[in-house]
From TrEMBL:
Keywords: Covalent protein-DNA linkage, DNA damage, DNA-binding, Hydrolase, Lyase, Protease. The lineage of its organism: Bacteria, Pseudomonadati, Pseudomonadota, Gammaproteobacteria, Oceanospirillales. It is an enzyme of class 3 (hydrolase). The keyword Lyase applies. Belongs to the SOS response-associated peptidase family. This is Abasic site processing protein. InterPro entries: SRAP, SRAP-like. It comes from Halomonas qaidamensis. PANTHER family: ABASIC SITE PROCESSING PROTEIN HMCES, DC12-RELATED. Transmembrane segments: none annotated. It comes from the Bacteria. Its EC number is 3.4.-.-.
């Protein structure tokens, strides 16, 4: 799964790759982004518009659920295109969630031992995600996950679906709606690019801080 991540690279650097329009408001670095908060995302609302950087609520509950549906933070890549809760968003409302790395916890560790996972070259990450309009008119998203690959599998059996640079525009393109076409045009990054290390258990509680010390190796 993906239940916590960090974003500290200036978002202006991340938006350049897809030509996204920046908001007027500054987005500050965060080292412990938790579900149920606003996250920096890129979406393309229509074929005639440029991609835009927007903040979305990390929790997916479409307005048609009328406040009664679940509010998942993740969607499985294996079923997102066919699951009734997500399939419309997969076809029409795909987005990118921006990150530098994410956290996972070693199973059966006590206290729960977090690891920080990121690219070996420290390049930022683009998580594939889907979004929908919420009851309050805002946008809520869920990050796609896949079977863990490479060294990420040492920590957890799932990992976020991280797209390579050539897939970003295809993933955002509103005119791509057919699931087989989307799958054929989108690729994840090479598993060998990911590394990880153990970090402080202070990550376990988002209230304990947002400083860069959270990603320092133990």
């Amino acid at each position: 799964m993906c239940g916590r991540f960090a974003l500290f690279t200036p978002v202006s650097e991340l938006t350049n790759k897809v030509g996204a329009v920046m908001p007027e408001r500054e987005i500050h670095p965060r080292y412990n982004v938790a579900p149920g908060t606003w996250v920096a995302s890129i979406r393309q609302a229509s074929e005639d518009s440029a991609p835009t950087l927007e903040e979305m609520w990390w929790g997916f509950r479409p307005s048609w659920a009328k406040g009664k549906g679940t509010q998942p933070i993740n969607a499985r890549v294996e079923t997102v295109a066919t699951n009734n809760y997500f399939k419309s968003a997969f076809a029409k409302h795909r987005c990118l969630v921006l990150a530098d790395g994410w956290y996972e916890w070693i199973k059966n560790s006590s206290p729960k031992q977090p690891h920080y996972l990121c690219r070996r070259d420290r390049e930022p990450l683009y998580f594939a995600a889907v979004y929908a309009e919420r009851d309050d008119g805002g946008l809520g998203c869920a990050i796609l996950t896949e079977q863990a690959r490479g060294s990420a599998a040492d920590v957890h059996d799932r990992m976020p679906l991280i797209l390579d640079d050539d897939s970003l525009e295809h993933w955002l393109a509103p005119d791509l709606t057919h699931k087989e076409t989307i799958h054929s045009m989108v690729r994840h990054i090479d598993a060998g690019l990911v590394e990880h290390w153990s970090v402080s258990t202070a990550v376990n509680k988002p209230s304990e801080g947002q400083g860069d010390e959270l990603i320092n190796p133990l």
